[in-house]
Design a protein that fits this description.
By secondary structure, the protein is α+β, with helices and mostly antiparallel strands. It contains 19 helices and 17 strands. The N terminus is likely disordered.
Amino acid sequence: MSTFKRSISALGLVALLVTSGCGGPTAAETAANKPVKIVIWRVFDDPSSLDAIEASYRAIHKNVSFDYRALRYDEYKDALLHAFAEGTGPDIFSIPNTWIGEYEPLISPLPATLTIPYTEIRGTLKKETIITLKTEPTLTERELKTNFLDVVDADVVRSYKPNGNKEAERRIFGLPLAMDTLALYYNKDLFNAAGIAVAPTSWTDFQNDVTKLTTIGPNDTVVQSGAAIGGSRNVERAFDILSVLMMQNGTKMVDDGGDPTFANKLADDTLPGADAVRFYSDFANPLKAVYAWSKDQPSSFDAFSTGKTAMFLGYSYHDALIKQKAPKLNYGIAPLPQISSGRIVNMANYWVETVSKSTKNANWAWDFVQFAAKAENASKYLKATGKPTALRSLINEELTDETLAVFAGQLLTAKSWYAGKDAAAAETAFLDLIDGTVAGGDANKLIRDTVNKVSQTL
């Protein structure tokens, strides 16, 4: 029995077979025969990524068709807002987990029940086609926690107040089909030349390897970089890297109410958030032994794919991009280094599928999102896209996959923290924090200023 839906008989619900008149079609038949087109907008994946899931859904709901539109990331936000303003937005759209707060006013959260028509063939000798309207409970938060990784519940379940006369309730605002984690890419040829046999597993080892792999020329010019880390605008996902360093170091990023607390001191009077900032920025400080990066370097991705840096922190999607840009590059992928104290924290990066508040097909749209997120269907999407899973039940299978094993092995310890209304502004605040620290500013003061900036985005 599906964990997403309980049987109707178990709940005492009955099929609605109400006729519209003597000999006329039933309400169920009318609903089942009414054409429904579900418009889906997503980024990065082409339409074929959902072909298998859509085909499976249409096998039980023949009246449903799909209109899939793949948009470029740089045009996505403007296209969404323009379409919603004109009333031409999609039924289902995909957003990063850190955008949920920004798009809450445009989302219709998952309702407690869905009413959908089903067509069944009954009988042994005499076959009959029976169409029923089934009202079934949707995915509960308990089932969400059971089926999906911990970070999903923390991100997608939010307070929702349908109207001013009702109490706020916890509702699910989206479901992921995949999840990525931050890992360490390393150039095997540069490692071999430096006499380094294996990728670093701790940040202490990482620092030691950086000093062996970096070559500095006149005027502090970085000739060969040991690692693409320490900068802001030219380091891909610098926000994620600094965030996970803070969390690994024991920083509580937000309190129970969602307010940022990453500038708070611990009981022992230490400020782990600021310590993480200093650790990160040291790699861009010419006065430090680990100096390996500067603002004059190309983007971290370009530096790694062209062999100019030995280590790069990236996600699973970077693997295909590197192979495309540098097919002859000899590199490996290792787990994200951890702090030697043993606190294991990894960084989650994922998108969720959600339903527009303006859709006229909310029941159908949410039913399809739930259908797509089931293990037997999500696995089809993962196979088509080569992405790591967001479902607990599929992790062990991915641990045997040569490409996905590293990323899948980090899923159970993956975290995210930003839940405000302007992820871009929060990221900019972190980049400014990096720049200010690299320029010699007081990290303790700068991180307090950053908390104030992030607070304004909530």
